[in-house]
Amino acid sequence: MTGTPGAFHFPAPPPLGLYVHLPWCLRKCPYCDFNSHPLRGALPEAAYVDALLQDLETELPLVWGRTVETLFIGGGTPSLLSPEELARLLSGIRARVPCRPGLEITLEANPGTVDQARFEGFRAAGVNRLSLGVQSFDDAALRRLGRIHDATEARGAIAAARRAGFERINIDLMFGLPGQALDQALADLEAAIAQDTGHLSWYQLTIEPNTAFAREPPSLPDADRLADMQEAGAERLAAAGLAAYEVSAWCRPGQACRHNLNYWRFGDYIGIGAGAHGKLTLAGEGRILRRRRRRHPRDYLAATDRLAGERSLTPADALFEYMLNALRLRAGFTPAAFEAATGLPWALAEPRVARLVERGLLEQAGDGPSAVVRPSPRGRDLLDDLVASFLDGGE
């Protein structure tokens, strides 16, 4: 399968999100492989907001007539931005691109960089959802992870966010930490559940290349202990009334992150900021583009052309990327959803899906365009292998 214009057929493009990346943090965590850079001196926030808005303008010809459905500001540590510059950014975005009424605007925040006044400023600027990088409520674990906050500050940040008027708050929490025992992982999870934020991103610490932990690996729990943590934690989350809607995302009704759901459903998104990636469907041309920005903030700020590269997806790319995302969802997907998001006929995926159903890795309920396809419990346990089946040359 080759990537040629017109290889995809879209009645309409998929929903559109906007991702904004702020690349600075106060200190690089030893497990972090994101495009983040320890801040040296004052944050050049006014210049960076100017650059972000100029960057957005270069994307506008590719999205004329489309509405931004969700907005996510990630990093790095976006809560380093002052509320005033954040307000200028958000008003500048609204002036340049149509936004959905009641737009979900998520801001990632580090508990060590915020207080109630700052939260109030973010809320007044238009942010209506927070994602707090807590990672653990155990002070010793936080020190091993290189975090700049402690458990008291984490709890204080959650309380301050509530007082500032935030009703939608996510806690990022990791398990499988260096030296962590099962009871410690569950105690961490209990502490997070007790905060009753309505959304919890609970995921396993993994050692990524080009990180401090990769250079000097810590002692992590073995596979059996990790499996015990995951099984016992899932039971506890379900008992607390939180439903898993994605591999590592748990929430109460109405609290799912709409921006992330758009990723997992293979929706479109503009990506602006240093190192940001985007995916845009050009329905009239039958193309799907992947675009990426200059990675280093110094280069990004200095450039007049901030685009570092782009490529058109092939049908094989789109098939694999769709499954890479959609198979993370507990609700699964339908053939109709596959065709709408990829612009490809279901016949391209159907033979592999049928073989994987026979092998017990996928389940299919119903027939035709509205059939529901989802990983089986065994398929969820072997998700990497299941996804790899959709690579060219795979199953």
Protein described:
This protein folds into 2 domains: 247 residues, Aldolase class I (TIM Barrel, Alpha-Beta Barrel); 81 residues, Winged helix-like DNA-binding domain superfamily/Winged helix DNA-binding domain (Arc Repressor Mutant, subunit A, Orthogonal Bundle). Strands 9-10-8-7-6-5-4-1-11 form a 9-stranded mixed sheet, with helices on both faces. A hairpin with a 6-residue loop joins strand 15 and strand 16. Helix 1 runs parallel beside helix 2, helix 2 packs parallel to helix 3 and helix 6 runs parallel beside helix 8. By secondary structure, the protein is α/β, with parallel strands linked by helices. The two termini are 16 Å apart. 37% of the residues lie in helices and 23% in strands. The mean pLDDT is 95.
